Hints:
The termini are far apart. By secondary structure, this protein is of the alpha+beta class. The protein is built from 4 helices and 9 strands; from the N terminus they run E-E-H-E-E-E-E-H-E-E-E-H-H. The relative contact order is 0.21. Strand 7 (101-111) and strand 8 form a beta hairpin.
Amino acid sequence: MAELDIVDEEDKVIGKADFEEIHKKGLRHRSVQIFVFDKPNLENLLIAQRSSKQETSKLKLHPSAGGHVKLGQSYLRSAQEELKEELFYEYRELPTGVTLVEIARYKNDSRPTNKENTCLFFSIYSGPFSIDEAEIKRIYWENINNTWENMRRNQDDYTFTFLNAMKEFRRFRGLLK
């Protein structure tokens, strides 16, 4: 498994460890989440359903893409890599026009053994996509307001990571209005 930076509350690197050790001991590390929208109005969000092959949160709904920041990697580089791995699996590179905009950094402590400093990005791209079926069972577009309502009614259908990312996105969206 990949090595990750261990970080403190202020996101300063204080060590390194492999994925298993970090999660076994509940060490703080970095992650990225990406929301992909089909248009600049940020209304239709691409939602991913995790694969049944995932170790945690099998078949739960999740942000468009996301994952851990590898040792020495920047948040931006990690987000680009996660997009490529999960949504553009059969592509050699990210398609032209796929750009990422950072919108929030926050604590994403989703479980006692999963303490993350997370960077949330968004991108505007309507497809086509090529998913990695080991990571994602399916993807689909949903209106962001419907997603929020569904989360409130059926919280157990979503990963904690998605719930936390959506709260941060709603704060960001509120600043735009």
